Amino acid sequence: MPTTSLEGLVAVGGRPLTPKGRATRQRIVETASRLMLEVGVERATIDDIQRVAGVNTSQLYHYFADKNALILAVIDHQTQTVIDLHRVSLERVEGFDGLVAWRDMIVDVLRAQQCIGGCPIGSLASDLVETNLDARRALQASFSSWEGLLRDGLSTMQDRGILPSDLDIGRAALALLAAVQGGLLLSQTRRDTVALEAVLDNAIDYLRSLSPSR
Amino acid sequence: MPTTSLEGLVAVGGRPLTPKGRATRQRIVETASRLMLEVGVERATIDDIQRVAGVNTSQLYHYFADKNALILAVIDHQTQTVIDLHRVSLERVEGFDGLVAWRDMIVDVLRAQQCIGGCPIGSLASDLVETNLDARRALQASFSSWEGLLRDGLSTMQDRGILPSDLDIGRAALALLAAVQGGLLLSQTRRDTVALEAVLDNAIDYLRSLSPSR
DNA sequence: CCTAAAATGGAATGTCCACTCTAAAAAAGG
DNA sequence: CCTTTTTTAGAGTGGACATTCCATTTTAGG
C-alpha cells in the first residue's frame, strides 16, 4: 500500500524535509488544491500549478513522484480542511439550533465564494472515482470521516432525547452528507444557494419531525 | 446564441443530413455520451470516441465543429435520456406509492450498472460547470426540466390533498433533485446504493410527515 | 568550515491530443 | 445519367502536457 505514514514529511524516495522544504511542499499542495477545485483535476496542469505556486519543475518532482501522488496529497489536504471546518461546527451540536448553525455555515461558505467551486471533496470525487482507484478509496475514507462527524452530532442529540433512540443514526448521517453534496452541486450549477438551502432545510425538518421532545 | 433549433438534423455549416448521416451522427453522440459518463469529459478523447464509434476524423468533424460542439450535443442527448426515463416514472405519480416507485427505479438503475457512472447529467455538470459557460447554461436548463417533472408530480399530489396546499412545491422538487444528485455521488464513490436509498427515503418520509391525509 | 544531503534551476524529450487538409466514394435529385 | 452535395478516408500538424535529466545553490550537522 502506497500510504504515506506521516503526511508531508518526506520527499520522493523517502527523503526527509527541512523546514524550507516543508513550506515549499505545502505551497504546492495548497495551490494544486485551489486550482483543482477551480478548474478540475485534469485541467489543473502541472505547469499552471508550478507557475501559480512559484516553483519550478524540479521542485514539484522533488516532492511528488508524479501527478498522481500530488492528487493524493490534495485529497488529504482537502479532507483535512473540510473535516476541520465541520468539526468546529458539529462538535457544538447538542440540538436543532446547532444543526441549523451548521447548515448556515455551509450556505455561508458557498455564498462567500459566489457558488463557485462546490465541495472540495465532492468535486474531487466526481473527477476521480471512475478513473483512479487509489483516489476513490481515499475519497471514500474522507466521506467516511465526515459522516462520522455528523453521526457524533446526531448521537449527542439522541443521548439528550432530542432524537428517538431507535433512529438509525448512521443512515441519517449518510443522508445528511448526501444532501450537502447534492445541494452543493445544484447550487454550483445554478449559481445560487437556494437548492442547498432547500435540501438541507428539508433534511433537518425531517429529523425535527421525528423528535419526541417537540 | 449558438442553439441548434432542430437537434441532429444538420452538420457543420448548417448542411442537411441524409438518413445515413443522421445515423452516423447519432452513433457518435451515443458513444461520446457513454465514454464521457464512464471516464469524464476530459479523458474521453476524440480518438477514443472515433475508435469506439467506428468512424474517422473527418466524419466526426463533419458533424461537429469541435469537441465543444460534441459536448453540447452530449448534454442534449443525456438530458433527453434522463428526462424520458423520469417522465414515464413520474407522470404516474399520484401518491406516495408512485414516489416510492420512482425512488426504486433510480436505485435499480444505479444497481444495474454496479454503482458505476453516477448521474449522466450530474457528472457532466461536475466536469463542466466551472470551465464551460455554454455547458453550464445547458445543464442548468436540464436540471430545470427534471425539476419541472418532479414539481408536476408533487403538484398532482397536492391537488389530491396528499400534500398540504401551502407547501412550496418548487422548493420541495429542488430538494428532491438535490437528494438524487448527492445520493448518486456518494453511492458512486462507495460503490453501494445505501447512501442513495437513505437520502431518498428520508426526503420522501419528510414529505410524508407533512401529509394531512395520514 | 567542510562535507553530505536537500533544494532549486530550467532546458529537453516524447507522447498525446484536438484539429486541418486534400481527396475520393457514395448518394440525391433533376 | 450527369451534376451537385453529402459522406467517408486518413495522413499530417502544431501545441500542450507530464516527466526526465544534468547542473547549481543552499542548508544541515559534525
Low-confidence spans of chain A: 1-5
CATH class of the domain at 71-210 in chain A: Mainly Alpha
Please count the helical segments of chain A: 9
Question: Which pair has the most extensive contact?
Answer: A-B, 47 and 47 residues
Would you list the SSEs of chain A in sequence order as H and E?
Answer: HHHHHHHHH
Shape of chain A: elongated
CATH homologous superfamily (4th level) name of the domain at 71-210 in chain A: Tetracycline Repressor, domain 2
The whole-angstrom Rg of chain A is 19 Å
User: Helix content range of the residues of chain A, please?
Assistant: over 70%
- CATH fold field value of the domain at 71-210 in chain A: Tetracycline Repressor, domain 2
Give me the CATH architecture of the domain at 71-210 in chain A, please. Orthogonal Bundle
Largest sheet of chain A: none
The CA-CA distance between the termini of chain A, in Å, is 50 Å
Mean pLDDT of chain A: 95
Count of individual beta strands of chain A: 0
Instruction: Kindly report the oligomeric state of this protein.
Output: homodimer
SS class of chain A? mainly alpha
Amount of beta strand of chain A: under 5%
Pfam families (chains A, B): TetR_C_13_2 (PF21993), TetR_N (PF00440)
Keywords (chains A, B): DNA-binding, Transcription, Transcription regulation
DNA-binding region (chains A, B): 45-64
Protein name (chains A, B): Transcriptional regulator
